[in-house]
Amino acid sequence: MDERYSPVQDLRRHHRRLVLRSLRDDGPQPRADLARRLGLSATTMTKVVGQLLDEGLVAEDAVEGAGQRVGRPSTGIRIRTDARYVIGVQVGAGTVHLGLCDLRAQVGPRASFTFDVATERPERVVATIAQAAAELAADVPADRLLGIGVAAPGPVDPGHRRILVSVNLGWRDVPFADLLEAALDVPTVVDHNVRAMALAESRYGETAGADPLLYVYVRTGVGAGLVIGGYPFRPGAYGVTELGHLRVLEKGRPCACGATGCLETVVSEPYLIERLGRRSDNPLADIPDGLLDDLVDHLTTGLASAVNLLNPELIVLGGIFAPAPEAVFDRVRAALRAKAFPVLRDVVRVERPTVGGDSAGVVGGAAVALDCFLYER
User: Fold this and answer.
1) Residues 74 and 117 in one domain
2) In terms of domains, do 222 and 302 share one?
3) Counted domains in the chain
């Protein structure tokens, strides 16, 4: 339902967002410091903080440090991270991971299940997600569960309501959010999986502040998500950047998308399993040098195009690269430097993720839900 607000209500909501975002990004702060930082009057700050205290979203605690007057302990405002919760959901090719997350997107109880991509219909997958989510949130009062964020593969529609197409799942036009809301009666938002990971890294990672931030996730395929100015970049009608479908080989292998020579046909977990003849939790730890050279060459061909077009300050390389030895990252950095435009290559850094670990998509889904239902509401 379309919510409409008066100008006064809009202004109050804006002030509320400013305060919550500052507390999220900059940590606990005295009221006076917070007001100065945000350019708000003492009266406005009193009203906003009073409302947030009434809702239980923030707390006021003693703060030690400079500026504290003798005999009068200073107090600071902080977000109560356990005041509300969201559920983050990561949908992959045959796997789903869920986690109950707090207001800092920290993952608590988790659940996972697998499904057969060839035979399982999306409606059945949604039903299983709903059951698992209900179990995770069984001890959370309904008014403290803000919503569910789903990090899903493939382009999603502009309203974050449906998955338009996922070549690795074989799904088309799936009203994912509507199905999950109908099953659970909990507000749900769906976003592109790697864009959600990029948002989580930008919001809650050690790399926060890098701008633009390009997140590249290599697993079943190669996905990318871009954050510019602190917000996800959603280009075109469907807001997706399909790095994995850049053509890197003239006479390459067929891709699930219907083209040939796509990056993800030669840089992906299935490709490595095929070449190595085995699965591994860390396939890049003991990969033959020749195969690693080819992998890095193909990957950095794609990354160089991204650098030359987007000029990111930071590339976060996740998925199968997240646990890789630092020597692998050194090879990627050197190869990328040799291919990218001279000025741009001096700016960009390549690092591993600092948020989520194996649950990067869960934290990504949580970050999307927190933005949608609290911090950007």
Assistant:
1) no
2) yes
3) 3
In which order are the strands placed within the sheet that holds 145-152? 107-114, 95-101, 85-91, 145-152, 188-192
Task: Tell me the residue range of the domain where 320 lies.
Answer: 208-354
Domain ends where: 23, 53, 79? 79
CB 211 within 8 A of CB 191: no
Q: Is residue 279 part of a domain?
A: yes
**List of residues 6+ apart from 6 with CB closer than 8 A:** none
Is 349 in the same domain as 215? yes
Task: Find the CATH number of the domain harbouring 186.
Answer: 3.30.420.40
Give the pair of three-digit tokens for residue 270: 């299935």
Q: What is the CATH number of the domain that holds 71?
A: 1.10.10.10
pTM: 0.93
Residue type, 331: R
Q: Which helix (H) or strand (E) holds 216?
A: strand 213-218
Tens digit of pLDDT at every position of the chain (377 positions): 456 667 888 899 999 999 999 999 999 999 999 999 999 999 999 999 999 999 999 999 886 654 455 556 678 999 999 999 999 999 998 999 999 999 999 999 999 999 999 899 999 999 999 999 999 999 999 999 999 999 998 888 867 688 888 888 888 999 999 999 999 999 999 999 999 999 999 999 998 789 999 999 999 999 999 999 999 998 766 666 789 999 999 989 999 889 999 999 999 999 999 999 998 889 999 899 999 999 999 999 999 999 999 999 999 999 999 999 999 999 999 999 999 999 999 999 999 999 988 889 999 999 999 999 999 98
